[in-house]
């Protein structure tokens, strides 16, 4: 079986059988194309791959300057790929078995300070799309959404009366997340004052639209956020907003289980990294203010 055929079969399995999101499958595809090219250069089929080849490939990524998180993601993609080959009885051993990801726990998620969030939310843009952009930012911070979840929200996902939104996360898993009244007010204002102008007599189920009346893209929101960050003097990415949501909730006394549900984590160990963030921030405050810490 040819490499391209094997890869295509795996990606189709991820989409149809496992019902993974298009973004996840695309990530698998990008990672595995690099690995398959490496095997092709070695004149070896994925069906005859040994553990040392996988190790050599990952070490090569490190030498090329790939970050620990990128190498860990590549290894995760390879693990899923070889598990599929075993499931299909195409191989009888997993060359990734026993391989561990680079230690990522030392690299804590970057959360903004509350003052930095306030600066971002108080930014005024000379843009006719300002109301949309500030509403998206407010909602992202209020509900801890991933940027893909934010741009894929639909009108039917909002329950104004109950103060909740329905979110479709990774693997098309749905969860219900609360939103604050300030976000609700901004959404209502956007729906009345700007969205009809963006639609231009078209129809769309998506909540946030671009200037052509189509759903906003992740890339466009990221660009808009960079502009707001530059004006506010805050270095920010969409994921930092989500990290800030989680960290600030924990610091305010929220419990891990509730946070896990709001973030849409399937494993609570993923949520527990935010306790490390809070402890790290606590230590910095201690060293900064305690009279005997200097």
Automatic annotation (TrEMBL):
GO BP annotation list: cell division; chromosome segregation; DNA transposition
Record's GO cellular component terms: cytoplasm
Ranges for domain Tyr recombinase: 107-287
Signal sequence coordinates: none
Active site: 146, 170, 239, 242, 265, 274 (o-(3'-phospho-dna)-tyrosine intermediate)
Keyword line: Cell cycle, Cell division, Chromosome partition, Cytoplasm, DNA integration, DNA recombination, DNA-binding
Pfam families on file: Phage_int_SAM_1 (PF02899), Phage_integrase (PF00589)
Domain Core-binding (CB) intervals: 1-86
Domain of life: Bacteria
Location of this chain's protein in the cell: Cytoplasm
A molecular-function term among this protein's GO annotations: DNA binding
Family: Belongs to the 'phage' integrase family. XerD subfamily.
Subunit structure: Forms a cyclic heterotetrameric complex composed of two molecules of XerC and two molecules of XerD.
Task performed by this protein: Site-specific tyrosine recombinase, which acts by catalyzing the cutting and rejoining of the recombining DNA molecules. The XerC-XerD complex is essential to convert dimers of the bacterial chromosome into monomers to permit their segregation at cell division. It also contributes to the segregational stability of plasmids.
Name by which UniProt lists this protein: Tyrosine recombinase XerC
Provenance organism: Thermodesulfovibrio aggregans
């Amino acid at each position: 079986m040819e490499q391209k055929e094997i890869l295509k079969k795996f990606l189709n399995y991820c989409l149809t059988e496992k019902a993974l999101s298009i973004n996840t499958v695309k990530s698998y595809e990008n990672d595995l194309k690099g690995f398959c090219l490496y095997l092709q250069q070695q004149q070896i089929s994925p069906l005859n791959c040994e553990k040392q080849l996988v190790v050599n490939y990952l070490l090569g990524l490190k030498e090329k300057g790939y970050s620990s998180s990128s190498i860990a993601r590549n290894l995760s993609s390879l693990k899923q790929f070889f598990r599929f080959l075993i499931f299909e009885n195409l191989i009888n051993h997993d060359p990734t078995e026993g391989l561990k990801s680079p230690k990522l726990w030392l690299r804590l998620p970057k959360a903004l300070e509350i003052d930095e969030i306030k600066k971002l939310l108080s930014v005024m843009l000379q843009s006719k799309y300002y109301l949309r952009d500030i509403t998206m930012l407010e909602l992202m911070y209020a509900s801890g959404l991933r940027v893909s979840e934010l741009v894929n929200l639909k009108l039917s996902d909002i329950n104004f009366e109950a103060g909740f939104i329905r979110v479709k996360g990774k693997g098309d898993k749905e969860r219900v997340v609360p939103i604050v009244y300030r976000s609700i007010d901004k959404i209502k204002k956007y729906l009345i004052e700007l969205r009809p102008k963006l639609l231009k007599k078209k129809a769309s189920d998506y909540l946030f639209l671009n200037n052509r009346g189509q759903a906003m893209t992740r890339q466009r929101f990221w660009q808009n956020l960079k502009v707001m960050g530059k004006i506010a003097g805050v270095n920010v990415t969409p994921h930092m907003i989500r990290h800030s949501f989680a960290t600030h909730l924990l610091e305010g006394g929220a419990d891990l289980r509730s946070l896990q549900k709001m973030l849409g984590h399937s494993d609570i160990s993923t949520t527990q990294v935010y306790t490390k963030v809070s402890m790290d921030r606590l230590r910095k405050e201690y060293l900064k203010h305690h009279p005997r810490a200097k």
